[in-house]
Amino acid sequence: MKANAKQLAREAESSAVFEAVARAGYVANGVIHILIGVIVIVLAAGGRGEGDQAGAMKAVAGAPAGFVVLWLIAVGLWALGVWHAAEGLLARDRSGDAKGAARKWGRRMADWGQAAVFIALGLISAAVAMGARPNAEEAAEGASRGLLEVPGGPILLGLIGLGIGIGGISFVVMGVRRSFRTRVRIPDGKRGRTLTTLGVVGFVAKGVALTIVGVLLVIAAVATDAETAGGLDGAVDALLALPLGPWLAWIVGVGFIAYGIFTVVRARVARM
C-alpha cells in the first residue's frame, strides 16, 4: 500500500498539467496574502474589515464573478496541498544514519503541515464561493473554548499555541537568513535582489503575525479564557492595541503584501 501511494505521488509530480495547477496555487495564495495586507493597512488607518484569510476571501466574493475566482483559488490551493503531500511522502534519507532520518521526517512534517494548511484554505474558499461567510476569529475562540472545557484541554491549547509560535519564529528566521532561497530559483541581477528583498520582508512580517497568534493561544491556555485566543485577525487587533500599534500594523500590512507578491512570483520560480 505504501509503495502504491509513493507511485501515485511520483506520477502526480511527473504530470506537467498537475504541476501547472499546483503552481497556480502559489498565485492564489499570493493574492490572498496581498488582500490580507491591504485589509490590515485599512484597519491601521481606522477602517473596518477582517484581517485574515476568510476576510480576504469574503472580499473576493464581493467582486464581480467573485465566486468563479474563489473556485479557481480553491482548486489551485488543493493542487498545491496535494503537491506538498506528495513531496512529503517522497522525502528520502540519503545518508542512512539517524541525522538523515531526522531530516527526512522533518521535511515530511513540514510538507504535510503545508499540505494541511493549503487544503484547509481551499475548503474555506470553496465554502465562501457557495455562500458561507465564516468568521475565523469566532471559530478560533469557539475551538479554544471547547478545548478549555475538556480535561487536559488547556495543556493541548498551550501546545498548539506554542507550535504556531515556533512556526512564526521559523518564518522570521527564514526571512532573516534568506533560507527560503533554497526552494526557489532566484534570478540574477536586479530582479533577483528585488525578489530576495520581498521574501525577507514578507517572511518576517508573516512570522511576526503567526508568533502573536501563538502567544494569544498560550495566554488563553494559561488564563483559561477563550476570548483571549484568536487567529490572524486577533493578532492584528493585538498589534493595534500596542503603543504605536497603527504604525506596527502598517508595517505588517506592507509585509503581507510583499509576501504575497513574492508568492505570486514563486509560482514561476519555485523548485518543484
UniProtKB/TrEMBL annotation:
Pfam families from the UniProt entry: DUF1206
Regions that span the bilayer: 21-45, 65-91, 112-132, 152-176, 197-224, 244-265
Lineage of the organism: Bacteria, Bacillati, Actinomycetota, Actinomycetes, Micrococcales
Residue ranges constituting the DUF1206 domain according to the UniProt record: 24-89, 114-178, 201-269
Keywords noted in UniProt: Membrane, Transmembrane, Transmembrane helix
Top-rank taxon, per record: Bacteria
Organism: Microbacterium sp. LWS13-1.2
Name the UniProt record assigns to this protein: DUF1206 domain-containing protein
InterPro entries for this protein: DUF1206
